[in-house]
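Is it possible to get an amino acid sequence alongside its tokenized fold?
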Amino acid sequence: MDKDNIYQDYGDFIFKYLLTLTNNLDLAEELTQETFYQAIKSINNFHDNGKAKFSTWLCAIAKNVWLQELNHKNKNQQLKDSLKSESTTFYDLVDEYIKNEDKVLFFKKAHQLSEDKREILYLRVLGDLSFKEIGSIFERTENWARVTFYRAKLEIRKGE
């Protein structure tokens, strides 16, 4: 793996992934830099054995960097800030809750989902990623991402 071109080849992809997780441009930029710093430090731990793609390895590092950031900040304050953000793109499922329910209730219900379903829900609804892009992040098919998203919606609606 050529260390010199890693950021050029994967920088935008990792930034978009982190933006879907953080919903914050500045934080996503900061975490992207930290992700590549960590990746360069541990590049010798990546083994190109055909089982994992390099982009998936980077996504795993990015997710860990993000989780570490969450542990350092007040989670409740971040939730309040993200709910106040008017730049967030909400549609279909979330629109129903904004019209009929409290936003906090939606996020409480989403928080009860399994980690994969919750992340797919956030990537689709907040990150506006396609099912194909989501499937790529999870190393699964576009159809798997679509079905998992549909099941997450059903679980959220089940509690109504």
